[in-house]
Amino acid sequence: MDIPRPDPQLLPADLIVLHNLTSDIKIHRARAKDQDENFATGESNDQSTMRQLDALKDEPSVFCSWDLNDVPFSEGLAGSLLRAYIAWAQTVMRNPLDVVFLTHLLLYLGTSLPSAIYLYHQFSYLHGVCHWIMQLYYCGSFTLMLHNHIHNRGVLTRKYAWLDHVWPYVLEPLMGHTWDSYYYHHVKHHHVENNGPEDLSSTLRYQRDSLCDFLLYVGRFLAFVWIELPMYFVRKGKYRLASKAAFSELLNYAFIYFMAQRNFPATLFVLVIPLVQMRVALMVGNFGQHALVDADDPASDLRSSITLIDVPSNRYCFNDGWHTSHHLNPLRHWRDHPRAFLASKAAYSSGEALVFQHIDYLMMTYRLMRKDYDYLADCLVPIGEQMDMSKKELADMLRKKTRRFTEEEIESKFYRRAKQRHFGVSQPAHGNSNHCSSQAQVIDCGLTFEHPVAARRHEAVLILVDDLDGTCPQELGVHAPQRAKPTVTPEHKIPSCCDSSQTPFLGSTD
Known about the structure:
This protein is an all-alpha fold and 510 residues long. 55% of the residues lie in helices and 2% in strands. It contains 20 helices and 2 strands. Strands 1-2 form a two-stranded parallel sheet. The longest helix is centred in the first third of the chain and has 27 residues, at 125-151.
């Protein structure tokens, strides 16, 4: 199998990681052939790569299309204005690296909102079509900016908290999101269930290379998510969340109906078409993210999600391609994913995780519908034992990961296994409650997990504790108040520094 060649338009951090993985393949092949070539060891290669990533960590992201050093108007008056904008924007953003979020927020408020208002004032079909095309172009970056917003309870500093609360309600309907639905479904539901059997967007019960099953998957979400999500919260005893999710969804539908009574053509292009296209796109993307699920351990985050190192996902959608890393720690800052991956590369390799390049989630779903496993094998960046596999073996492996799970298998691999697993994590040796030990130890403390996905969350804890040299969530740029005494329940036992309220994959509160 040929060594993958990185796309030169990738983000610098992505290029660095891909060069690291390519070097691993070369080293592995040289050793397999007993060649006495002057290759660096894998460990020294990782250390060198980590130093390169460290050199990028303080450079703010300002635009999606250009890295800061490649901005074409960085000289003269334009350059002075740009530097002044960056300096001001860093005082506005909660994380100084996130200037790009303010750039996009100003872009949307300065184009989408005025365009929508004018359509209601004086509608024309030409303007309506142009507005729809503009929103189609914006929706990916907006959704992933919103994704960061909902996971971190905002992106702006406290001084601008009012704007942080207002802009989602203004822009969400224009981009195809109903008010707060993304937060309730994604944070309070999907990251609790993690593609498990109770996840409303779970792919387990579908043949994941079947067009018929895919259409059923999307159709169910479009037709029933408005009622199924509140009912899920009711089943879990989270009645407050159920009422909030139902109220915000129905209120948004009432708003669309009200606006349609005033100007139906404008409402069609401003609110209805974006809503339908966004919900289809969300399901196409989620299907691609969780289509390749390991038959032996579908409850593992490493084996039920994938990593994409590609331009559309990472350059234009704020590292959305690092999906496995996000599931392992939903509070990890989007810029930290490449470094976290490298720090936990051994766990990814031993866990048989999947890493791809030259493909995004939409194309992943498209190629699966065509059953084009040879193409997917070409896009796969082999790690661990995958480096010993031929292209045909890789294609066969990927094909097996799309098989539908039976109800008996789901019962066995989620519910029964969850009740049998026990785990615990050792306390930090140095006694400082603000830091995690870089070495986590699994012990049998007699805990039983009744929730079908709770039993697998220990692997996320171990990787969170062990990656980034034992850095805790508080040190990853997560600005959340610390509690004097963390809440630890028998269902979610975690290191003392990792409060369950700050790590959604360990439990969610109302």
